[in-house]
Structures are given as C-alpha cells and as structure tokens.
Specification:
Helices cover about 45% and strands about 5% of the residues. By secondary structure, the protein is mainly α. The protein has a two-stranded antiparallel ribbon. Helix 2 packs across helix 3 and helix 2 (about 30-40) packs across helix 4. The protein is elongated. The model is unreliable at about 5-15 (pLDDT under 50).
Length: about 100
C-alpha cells in the first residue's frame, strides 16, 4: 500500500477511487467490516482507502472489487457525462439527401 502524504492527493493516482468504493459498498448495504472481511484486509485499511489516505495495491484493489461484486475495470472506468444539444425545429441542420 502506498501512503499518501498530507500535501498530495490520492486522487491524482486513481481518480475518485475511494469515493467509488464507498458508493459501491453503500449500494450493497455493507459495513466497512463486511468488505474488509470479504477482501481479507483490515477495516482501517478500507476506511483509509475510501478516505483517500492510502492508495491500495492492485492485489488489494482486486480483492475489494471482488468483495463488492464488481470488476476493477468497472471501478476505474471514467464515466463521461453525455453532452446533449437541444435544437428547436427551425434550427436543425438539413441533410443533403
């Protein structure tokens, strides 16, 4: 596990990782101790990861994701907001067909 210094942000290494793990845990209605037990790590470690104080190893991350019934890829994928453009009827471009 990499410890994060106070003047750095774990989010630079893995954007919003802790928030995403916490969100998944709460969606499954699990306590920190439930996830820690399933992942084979301490409750304190899960808490530190969720709060951005520690960046987990890939092995620990994989175990946490398995405990939450999700893939590492699913956890790390960047959800880009879709951009929509709403046009009024007269503003739509005409196709050349």
């Amino acid at each position: 596990m990499a410890r994060v210094d106070d003047d750095t942000d774990a989010g630079t290494a893995l954007p919003r990782l802790g928030e995403r793990l916490r969100h998944a845990r709460l969606l499954h209605r699990l306590r920190l101790s439930d996830v820690a037990g399933r992942a084979g790590c301490s409750t304190s470690m899960v808490s530190k990861i969720e709060n951005g104080r520690v960046v987990p190893s890939l092995t620990t991350l994989h175990r946490l994701c398995a405990a939450l019934d999700m893939s590492v890829a699913g956890l790390l994928e960047r959800a880009e907001p879709r951009r929509w453009t709403i046009l009024k009827a007269g503003e739509r471009p005409l196709s050349g067909h």
